[in-house]
Amino acid sequence: MSEKIKSVLLIVLGNFIFAIAVVYFVLPHNILSGGVAGVGIIIEHLFGISATIVIDILIVFTFVLGYFLLGKEFALKTFISSIVYPVFITIFSFFPYHIEADPYLIIIYGSILTGVGLALVLREEASTGGMDVPAILIHKYAGIPLHVAFFIVDAITALVGVLVFSVQDVMMGLVFVYLYNSVINKMMVPKTDRAVSLFIISEKKDEISTYIHDKLDRGTTIVPVKGGYTDEEKEAVMTVVSKQQYHQLEKVIEKIDKYAFVIVADAKEIKGEGFSFEVRV
Questions:
Q1: Final residue of a structural domain among 188, 218, 246
Q2: How far apart are CA 15 and CA 50, in angstroms?
């Protein structure tokens, strides 16, 4: 299976899971989840417009916004979401099912499904459209970590819900937002804290190193290594990248040299330029 087909399938799967969370958890229980679903719930209660219609309109609008501000490649991948997500929402809406469960269980399971769905899409450098786009714009232009940008946008949406719902509903919405953003944060780079350390042995080390310098704005260290079995001398690339950059770099290494030997380790504490203080311009 080609990488492009695999990427498209993961984007579709992510939207499928996200739509399930919205239709069967968020909308029936009026969870102020942030995102277009949260906006849809608020507008539906204020003006009587169907939340499903509001979601469809916002997705189209934010897709156009993303096209002009985030580029054609991003827009192309997001275009898939802009089609399949509203379709899934509409299809599932024809099969309503009200889950009878403790509100806290609804919050927990709904947020997990939401986080998993969004993370699958974000890992493919796309979005589900909607309020993802403002969050990604904040991440890109303000340098705020992606999961934090998502939390800011969604928390603002949930807080606006106080115009319609009770303070308790808003508090529950904030818990939902926090939980699903935590899931996104964990899934973007599994089992890592702040950053990832990579040790890369490749015949195309110069190309990989150049990408890290030019595209990720990170430094590298070239380390001489010697094969214990072959007795062959080589050079390896050592680097530390943020968790948001790891998945992107992983794909690029696979594309440049699928035979590259890569060791990935958690970097629990990093001190220096670009991590413990701002990068010099």
A1: 188
A2: 20
Contact between 227 and 234 (Cβ < 8 Å): yes
Q: How far apart are CA 205 and CA 236, in angstroms?
A: 7
To which H or E segment does residue 221 belong?
A: strand 220-226
* Number of domains composing the chain: 2
Q: How far is CA 78 from the centre of its chain?
A: 12
**Are residues 129 and 222 located together in one domain of the fold?**
no
For residue 217, the domain's CATH number is 3.30.70.120
Tracing tokens 């989840």 back to the chain, one arrives at 33
Give the list of residues 6+ apart from residue 243 with CB closer than 8 angstroms, or none: 185, 188, 189, 192, 194, 195, 196
pLDDT, tens digit, 9 for 90 and up, residues 41-89: 888 888 888 887 887 788 788 878 878 887 777 777 778 887 888 889 8
| Helix ranges, the chain (H) | 3-21, 35-47, 51-70, 72-93, 103-122, 132-142, 146-160, 167-188, 205-214, 243-256
pLDDT tens across 126-139, in order?
Answer: 777 777 788 888 88
DSSP 33-52: -SHHHHHHHHHHHHH---HH
Residues 146 and 25 in one domain: yes
Q: How far apart are alpha carbons 71 and 182 in whole angstroms?
A: 27
Tokens of 43: 């507008």
Domain-located, residue 53: yes
Asked if the structure places residue 279 within a domain, the reply is no
Task: Give the structural domain span for 234.
Answer: 195-267
On whether residue 83 sits in a domain, the answer given is yes
Do 59 and 82 meet the contact criterion of CB atoms below 8 Å apart? yes
